[in-house]
Each structure stands twice: as structure tokens, then as C-alpha cells.
């Protein structure tokens, strides 16, 4: 009897080892991108008790890893996604500004998966440019086919995919991007709202935030349906799942800004055959690190790669909470003329603003929001706090320095504080080193404002494009990874 039980245990262990090895050789990969969602607005991060995302949370709880300091390269939709699909900084992609297509010369990580036997599909939002279509076997884009939130095709695609290939899905929801959808399946009470310190606490702002909450919870609902279908097909434990946000929430003071509330987004990852030493990682991770990680998981060789990011696989295996020393982010044109660069460490954020004479109010969809109107009305009555008034300040400081541990909201600029002068010098030097190594440059003829910065009305320059950052230095051909 004991011998039989021992043999069964040996056989079971052997079978599990074989299955794990087979799975890890050709895993399915699903990348879910939440649109305009800040890190603090996903339940598992524990920052907002009024937003409930049980299905995304479960990915973390069920053997996944939550990264608390994951940063996008730009708090702007298409530049952020262009970095994600190439593993490169915005000025190195040739598409550093909103709505600029990626050049054909760029390499897209899904096309490498496709060339190595993967069935690849993009469902939902697609604005990285027509050249990226070659990376996918199937593209289903637009609201008409994908539904109000962009998730209607997830289950049909999973059911109808070729069953003889591993698959990669780029699932780009429209949730939670403005304008808010007509679907009211996930209503949220205005009483149960956590109003950020950057906004005024008013009924219309609360309604605005309630719509945002609703779209996040709708996205979470579809994540749950997706996971259930994976389990029903018995492929859940052979599927890598990643959930991320492309930039911060679409409100004044968040989206497009280089503060954490604009660039620090959710990143939850589950690799079934890797049992993480920790379920929460505190190290610095950049969005350009996603592409090399997924390619390594799929055992796809990149050769003389154009990828500037670094794979996270060793980090996942070791559990050591050490990775990057620095995060670099960019703010280029997004409805309004802009040129900012930032360097983020575990303790400090340093920002340089070449266009400091201009206000930094956020993108058009934030400017035309009820939340912005409430801020504007409160400003006329001189009822704004310094943090709320920040979006209207012009001229601004050309440099900003924040002590993250003491000032998590980045509300007290320390650039002129003598106690922090050495830190400012050090971070300025490292930022300049990164700019030099990656061929970043500041064009004289940047793309101008297309809209009025307060009213949001179209200007005569709408449609005019300037010179892309990095163009003069031929940054598109520079594959240097930059200081790490």
C-alpha cells in the first residue's frame, strides 16, 4: 500500500514537471491594457476603497505578482503604447507625440512572436499606426465591433482561435477613456467616491469620477469572464496574463503629467509555472521592460535587438526586490505643445521643463471635463489649494525636485532648497547622460497647440506638425539602452 502511494506521488510529480516544462516552452500570452487608469484605482493596490476590481485582484492573489513602482515612458496614449510594443523610449520610436504612427523600420514584439509560430490578435483600441498591422494575424478595432468598453470580442476570439498554435492577445480596452460610454451596467454612487487632492469636491466632479469608476469595474468584469473561459478551456495554467495601464487617469493634473499620478500605472503579472517569492514587488520597472520579458518567456531570440528594456524574468525567479536604479519619462505633444523630461529613483523625482512659460493643464479631454470646469470656477473665487491650482500656473519652474517618501503627492518643489542641492545636481547629470546615450534632443520647431488651453476650442494651428523630438540626432536608429 505504501509502495503504491509512493509510486503514485512520484508519477504525479514527474507528470507535473513534464507539463510545466511543456507549458513554459510555448505559453499563451494575454496582455490587457486598461486605458487611462492610475495605479491607485485598482483594488489590489489598496489605495481607493470605493473601486472594486476582484478579478484583476485575483490574478495577483492566484500566484501573480503586483508591481508597485511600474512606470510608463509617457503619460500619453499612443507614445506609451508605442514604447510598449517596441520596448523603446518614445523619442527612439519615431512616434513620440500623440497620434503619430510608428515607422515601418521599427520592430514590434508581437511580430516576433508571430514569426515564431504564435497566433497574434489585437482587439479594441489601435492607434500605433498601420505599420503595426503586420504584427497581427487578426485585428478587430473600433467600438462597433468591440462594444462600448472594447471587450466584446475577447471571449469569441478565445473560443475561435486556431487550436494548434500558442496565442498572443493584445487586449486594448476603451475603458476608462473619455468620453464615458453609454453602458450603465456598472453604476457607481456619487457618495462612494474618493476625490483626489488635485480636484475640488463637488457634485459634478463626483459624477465625473463615478463614471470613471464604473468603466474600471466594467473592465474588471470582462477580465473575470476571460479568466473563466481560460479555465473552461483548461489553458489557464498555460497562459501568461498581464494587466497594465497606459497612463494615469484622464483628469486634470494626472494624464500627460510626469508626476507619479500620471506615469505610475498598475502592473499585475501571472506566470503560472513561476511561483514568485513575493506577491508584491517594490522595485522600479519601466514599460520598455515588458517586451523583452514576454519574448524571453516565449523563448524567442531577439539577436542584435533594438529593444532598450530589460527582461524581468530573473527578477521573478529570484524574488530579489532590486532592478532599475532609474526610471526615465517624457512629456511630448499631446493636444498641446510640450517638452518635459523626468528621472525617477526610489526616493526622488526630478523634472526638467523646456517650455516652462506654458501652463500644464493636461490633455484636451481633461480640459473639457466637468472636473476642469469645477476647478476653473473655484479658481475664479480664489478657493483652490496650491495642488489644485498647479494646472493653471504659468510660468512654471523650469526644474522640479520632489522627495517622494516625504511628499508622495509631489506638491512641494525642493529645487531651490539647499539641503537637496547635491541630489538635484546628481539627478540632472544622470538625466543628461541618458539624453546623450539615447540621442534625445529638443527641436526648435515643436508641434504647436491645437486647442486653447482653457476653453478647449480648436486653434488655427490644428493639424500642423512640427519636428519630432530626437529627429535631429537620428534617435530612431539608436539602440543604446541608456543608463540603468
From TrEMBL:
Q: Which family does the record assign?
A: Belongs to the sulfatase family.
Q: Which UniProt keywords apply?
A: Calcium, Hydrolase, Metal-binding
UniProt organism field: Hydrobacter penzbergensis
**Matches recorded under InterPro entries:** Alkaline_phosphatase_core_sf, Sulfatase, Sulfatase_CS, Sulfatase_N
Q: Which GO terms describe its molecular function?
A: arylsulfatase activity; metal ion binding
* PANTHER family listed in its UniProt record: ARYLSULFATASE FAMILY MEMBER (PTHR42693), ENDO-4-O-SULFATASE (PTHR42693:SF53)
What protein name does the entry list? Arylsulfatase A
Looking up Gene3D superfamilies in the UniProt record yields:
Alkaline Phosphatase, subunit A
Q: Which residues form the Sulfatase N-terminal domain?
A: 27-132, 153-300
